[in-house]
Amino acid sequence: MPQEASSVIALLKERQRECLIQARAYDLWLRVLTPIRWITVISGVALPAIAGFKLLRGRPVFGIPWTNVSAP
Fold first, then answer.
1. CA separation for the pair 13, 7 (Å, rounded)
2. Cβ-Cβ contacts under 8 Å for 60 (sequence gap 6 or more)
3. Over the Cα atoms of the chain, what is R_g?
């Protein structure tokens, strides 16, 4: 019985070490991906908004004329 308990404890310590290594690797990978994710999200919102504004500026849509109110 003591032999079995010590082998279980050794296995648990090995698994804990592997888990810590994987957690560190995941953290390093997320540090790289987080700025890239924000850039893609912001550009995915900003670019269509700019394009839509350029297309609709000064044209009536459903009878409503769109005008540029932020710049002369």
1. 10
2. 66
3. 28
In the block, tokens 């560190």 appear at 24
Backbone angles phi, psi at 45, to 5 degrees: -95, -45
* Model confidence, pTM: 0.52
Domain positions in the chain: 2-56
Tokens for 30, please give them.
Answer: 């997320």
Structure confidence by residue, pLDDT tens digits, 5-23: 889 999 999 999 999 999 9
Name residues whose C-beta falls within 8 Å of residue 3's C-beta, 6 or more positions apart in sequence.
none
Tell me how far apart the alpha carbons of residues 61 and 14 are, in angstroms, rounded to a whole number. 66
Q: Kindly tell me the sign of the dihedral angle through the C-alpha atoms of 46, 47, 48, 51.
A: positive
